[in-house]
Design brief:
The complex is a heterodimer.
Chain A: E1 4-7, E2 10-13, E3 19-25, E4 31-38, E5 42-51, E6 54-57, E7 64-70, E8 73-78, E9 87-94, E10 103-105, E11 109-113
Chain B: E1 4-7, E2 10-14, E3 19-25, E4 31-37, E5 43-49, E6 55-58, E7 61-65, E8 71-76, E9 85-92, E10 98-100, E11 104-109
Parallel strand pairs in B: 2-11
Antiparallel strand pairs in B: 1-3, 3-8, 4-5, 4-9, 6-7, 7-8, 9-10, 9-11
Classes of the chains: A mainly beta, B mainly beta.
Chain lengths: 114, 110
């Protein structure tokens, strides 16, 4: 079984709808991240959480919100989806060891906003 | 322009040939991560480099971080179809966040 899972894997929605993307992990990591990937732009950080009570905005948090329900669960919401939020969304986890903080990624959610 | 530049953007290589992908930063790199992404899948961690001059290898993939710690290269020897995918570099800026290059798309021709 995958260590980091994301649901749904694909979603098509309409402008103005509220969407929630979910991420679960069995790695026991405290740190979790949400990224979006757009062609030619690489990954951009939306939000990150270092533990259940710690939520931080990333580079592009406008239009998004998150909830850390438990150590293993981190959800991303689009309150009112718009077409430029069409992208591939990744959840990741990490557990820093010294200078190493390798991130482990889920399979991604492909979101299309019409 | 991006803070972390990858080159080339895409690469088509004959199976069995060697290739190199570069990742260049405008600032000093405290840690440089290489990942591989296959279509429809997440990113798979390959290697992490931290020290100037450091070199690491995994199977036929070798990554180096230059002495000045502003560029890293990923070299694949005797490429195989399994090497096809998108290679991304991520840089640690020392604030617990990674910034990412745009990726290099690698296609292996049989």
């Amino acid at each position: 079984d995958a260590d980091v899972t994301q649901t749904p894997r694909n979603r098509i929605t309409k402008t103005g709808k509220r969407i929630m993307l979910e991420c679960s992990q069995t790695k026991g990591h405290d740190r979790m991240y949400w990224y979006r990937q757009d062609p030619g732009l690489g990954l951009r950080l939306i939000y990150y959480s270092f533990d259940v009570k710690d939520i931080n905005k990333g580079e592009i948090s406008d239009g998004y919100s998150v909830s850390r329900q438990a150590q293993a669960k981190f959800s991303l919401s689009l309150e009112s989806a718009i077409p430029n939020q069409t992208a591939l969304y990744f959840c990741a986890t990490s557990d820093p060891t010294g200078a190493l903080d390798t991130q482990y990624f889920g399979p991604g959610t492909r979101l299309t906003v019409l | 322009s991006q803070e972390l530049e990858q080159s080339p953007q895409s690469l088509i290589v004959q199976e069995g040939k060697n290739l190199t992908i570069n990742c260049t930063s405008s600032k000093t790199l405290y840690g440089l991560y290489w990942y591989k992404q296959k279509y429809g899948e997440g990113l798979i961690f390959l290697m992490m480099l931290q020290k100037g001059g450091e070199e690491k290898s995994h199977e036929k993939i070798t990554a180096k971080l230059d002495e000045k710690k502003q560029q890293s290269s990923l070299h694949i020897t005797a490429s195989q179809p399994s090497h096809a995918g998108i290679y991304l570099c991520g840089a640690d800026r020392g604030n617990y966040q990674l910034i990412w290059g745009a990726g290099t798309k690698l296609i292996i021709k049989p």
